[in-house]
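Field log, afternoon session.

UNIT: design team B
ACTIVITY: writing a sequence onto a fixed backbone
BACKBONE:
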């Protein structure tokens, strides 16, 4: 790229503030060896592009981002559909039980089960993550953290500004661990393309510097002739092992015909295997599979080493036929198939800034302090020299040069002698020159700043822009020119990098890389859901990696305040807070919060109604129990009265009744006897 991008090295010098000052000297007609006082000017260039670029890069990096993994294979999609159908069936069954007055507790709720169909749809749209998504996100984050991508991303954004492109490479290090590094500027080798992501490229690589010792370590089978070329014996100068040579590493896309054979077995099963070459007579399907081949070449030699198929190239199960390079590159814009950055357009404004800057230094170097004009008529009789010798014109000029005093005759514009004060001050400096040069410098700097998509507010030129919340937001939203395109390019470049790393993690795990497996187990944790050792590991799925912006401070603050208010009202539980905070989209989180608050309020109202009904039932039962107790008390009192009456008055009456009964019996017996006697007397004479 350093040979294809026009003025590549010139752009680098301007960004670093190391450009040549010869053209500035020619414009100012200054010779370094002329002995003039103007040679005291500080000709070191001022760094103009770098501060503006760092401010623009800081604006891009200030946004907090999250990696989001979304399953894209049919298996995960089917699992999500089954979950949705099962939860929907449970909700409908629960509603039917409630409508028919059945016992809802017979269908206990599962952990994380939604309350309504609307809540279930919201979870499916953005709140619910597949069980493997977190594993992928953690694995990618672990690789990025171990590679130090956060520190390298500043350099990548600087390359986008300077040269209009940036490139990353993910590779397996000497220990078999997946790592990521940034391709140095100008070292990328890529063909001409009309696409900013080089999607139609059949080859991609980079130019690098390797020591002789590194090459010998990677290529121990080197021949004697290749060794002479490597050490430079054929060039007449022997290299040392620590000397570096230019090496080109290239990756080329190839293809291979691959067939699938399905063969029935003796026990009634079917065996599926891949067939290469000409053994395609019994195959069911044949397709072309991409292969990525790579190798090293030492420039200006016949040495080629390390060539072969690149191990663990990014490849997904759902699109097994396609493979991608281990390089991820993207340009801001393409001009005739070549990337173009912003720094090249800023060079004229940087030159204008420096011309004004050197003119200001030149004006300062040549300016004189204010002088005094003394009329010669007022100096009659005043000796101007130590010795009595006539004063010459040279003496007057030396007096002006040494003492800043000018002696002469006062004349008008027509050259006629005029009268005036004997001493008149002369202003030797011109403030308008400095003001004009200052405005030229400010205008040139503003042009560079606008070129990078900044303004007086967005680059923190105001005293405290954070206090002007509304104005700052409007200025931030209005910054949608060049800075927006660079930010979008960086976002898509990082998304492609994360996608390649995720796919390559899956490939390495399917290939049985033990070191990579141990690394992930150590970083993520063996107990992570569906991690490596489970029956369905995460690498048996395909995911799509995207980057989303984290909610800003105001959105998070508003959501937190709403949650705290709901907690104070008692309409939000800790489980609800965890659920709301797990949703990264602020709008979906706010919707979930509203649904949870409404659900809890409805549940609170239902609980209140149940409590009222329960209180009414308790009161009714209490009244009934009180009535029963009163009746029991009255019955006991009546029984007691009867008992007392029976044992007092009743006994008396019983005894009295018994006595009277005895008397009546005696009287009856007496009457009977008397009656019998009378009857006996009446029948005696007849006998």
């Amino acid at each position: 790229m350093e040979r294809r991008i026009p003025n590549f090295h010139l752009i680098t010098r301007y960004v670093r503030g190391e450009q040549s000052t010869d053209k500035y000297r020619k414009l100012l007609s200054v010779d370094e060896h002329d002995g003039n006082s103007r040679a005291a000017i500080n000709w070191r260039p001022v760094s103009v592009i770098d501060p503006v670029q760092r401010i623009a890069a800081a604006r891009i990096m200030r946004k907090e981002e999250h990696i989001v993994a979304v399953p894209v294979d049919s298996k995960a999609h089917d699992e999500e559909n089954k979950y949705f159908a099962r939860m929907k069936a449970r909700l409908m069954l629960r509603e039917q039980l409630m409508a028919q007055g059945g016992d809802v507790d017979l269908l206990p709720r599962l952990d994380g089960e939604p309350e309504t169909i609307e809540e279930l749809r919201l979870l499916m749209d953005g709140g619910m993550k597949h069980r493997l998504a977190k594993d992928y996100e953690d694995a990618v984050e672990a690789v990025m953290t171990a590679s130090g991508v956060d520190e390298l991303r500043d350099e990548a954004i600087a390359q986008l500004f300077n040269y209009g492109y940036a490139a990353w490479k993910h590779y397996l290090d000497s220990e078999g661990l997946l790592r990521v590094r940034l391709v140095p500027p100008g070292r990328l080798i890529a063909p001409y393309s009309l696409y900013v992501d080089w999607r139609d490229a059949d080859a991609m690589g980079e130019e690098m510097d390797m020591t002789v010792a590194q090459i010998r370590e990677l290529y121990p089978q080197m021949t004697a002739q290749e060794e002479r070329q490597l050490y430079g014996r054929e060039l007449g100068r022997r290299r040392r092992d620590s000397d570096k040579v230019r090496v080109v590493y290239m990756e080329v896309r190839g293809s291979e015909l691959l067939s699938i054979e399905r063969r029935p077995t003796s026990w009634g099963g079917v065996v599926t295997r891949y067939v290469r070459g000409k053994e395609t007579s019994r195959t069911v399907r044949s397709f072309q599979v991409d292969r990525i081949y790579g190798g090293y070449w030492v420039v200006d030699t016949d040495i080629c080493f390390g060539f072969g198929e690149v191990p663990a190239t990014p490849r997904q199960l759902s699109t097994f036929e396609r493979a991608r390079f281990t390089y991820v590159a993207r340009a801001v814009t393409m001009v005739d198939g070549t990337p173009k950055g912003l720094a090249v357009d800023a060079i004229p404004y940087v030159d204008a800034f420096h011309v004004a800057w050197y003119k200001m230094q030149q004006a300062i170097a040549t300016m004189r302090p204010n002088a005094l004009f003394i009329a010669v008529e007022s100096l009659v009789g005043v000796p101007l020299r130590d010795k009595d010798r006539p004063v010459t014109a040279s003496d007057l000029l030396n007096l002006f040069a040494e003492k800043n005093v000018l002696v002469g005759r006062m004349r008008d514009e027509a050259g006629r002698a005029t009268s005036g004060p004997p001493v008149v001050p002369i202003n030797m400096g011109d403030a308008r020159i400095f003001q004009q040069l200052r405005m030229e410098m400010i205008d040139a700097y503003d042009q560079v700043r606008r070129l990078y998509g900044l303004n007086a507010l967005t680059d923190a030129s105001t005293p405290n822009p954070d206090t002007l919340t509304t104005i700052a937001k409007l200025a931030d939203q209005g910054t949608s020119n060049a800075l927006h395109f660079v930010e979008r390019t960086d976002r898509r470049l990082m998304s492609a990098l994360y996608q390649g790393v995720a796919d390559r993690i899956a490939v390495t795990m399917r290939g049985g890389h033990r070191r990579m497996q141990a690394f992930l187990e150590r970083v993520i944790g063996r107990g992570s859901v569906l991690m490596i050792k489970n029956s369905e590991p995460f690498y048996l799925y395909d995911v799509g990696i995207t980057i989303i912006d984290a909610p800003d401070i105001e959105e998070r603050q508003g959501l937190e305040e709403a949650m705290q208010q709901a907690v104070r009202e008692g309409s939000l539980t800790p489980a609800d807070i965890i659920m709301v905070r797990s949703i990264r989209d602020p709008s979906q989180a706010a919707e979930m919060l509203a649904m949870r608050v409404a659900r809890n309020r409805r549940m609170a109202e239902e609980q209140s109604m149940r409590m009222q009904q329960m209180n009414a039932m308790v009161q009714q039962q209490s009244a009934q129990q009180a009535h029963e107790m009163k009746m029991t008390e009255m019955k006991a009192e009546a029984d007691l009265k009867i008992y007392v009456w029976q044992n007092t008055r009743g006994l008396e009456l019983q005894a009295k009744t018994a006595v009277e009964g005895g008397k009546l019996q005696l009287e009856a017996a007496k009457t009977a006897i008397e009656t019998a006697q009378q009857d006996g007397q009446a029948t005696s004479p007849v006998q």
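LOG NOTE: Confidence is low (pLDDT under 50) at residues 529-535.
NEXT ACTIVITY: expression trials, pending approval
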